């Protein structure tokens, strides 16, 4: 028994720990000495999991420390130990990959017609670089958009809610809705070698129960400054024709 170095410790590793201990799901993956211990108690480092393992020993890791006086390098201050907070209730947001494949298409569009999307931080970072480097004619630049419907289903056992309090949500006149989250989902396009060639993200000018299973009440709706979130068994859907 001993500590694990907290360097690059993520929710994927924490999820395996919670599963191994029978404590449900990982709510947080901390790098801290809050719970005590010292660097001499570290038994391994470099732990990397895919999140599906049944126990931590099945994950990649450096050799276990075999002798008490054997040193293990742990980057940082030497007080960064892996810790987890587990919970038995958690939302689980799952993108509908088949809906992305079914709905995807390409569209060329001038930035002048995407000004609302730019104001609401919906476009990739390269679009804003065009605006900075060409301040007079940027609006006549053309963007090639990969459009698709993003259907995100909550298959967990707790509702998903924005972390920002409601009174801090930002109102945008373009869509006449409040933003509850700056970025809700990130999408990358990779080439066949795994290199990222384009990026995009789904902002959250509206997060609501668009589609629910039979006999399930829609709880969250954006209209009239309503509460935002995704109920258990419901899906938030952004259609392909929405600029954001």
TrEMBL record:
GO CC annotations, alphabetized: extracellular space; membrane
InterPro entries according to UniProt: LOX-like_protein, Lysyl_oxidase, SRCR
Main subcellular localisation: membrane
Localisation: Membrane
Membrane topology according to the record: Single-pass membrane protein
Source domain of life: Eukaryota
Keywords attached to this entry: Disulfide bond, Glycoprotein, Membrane, Repeat, Signal, Transmembrane, Transmembrane helix
Domain SRCR per the UniProt entry, residue ranges: 1-87
Keyword Hydrolase included in the entry's annotation: no
Gene Ontology molecular functions: copper ion binding; protein-lysine 6-oxidase activity
Cystine pairs: 49-59
Listed name of the protein: SRCR domain-containing protein
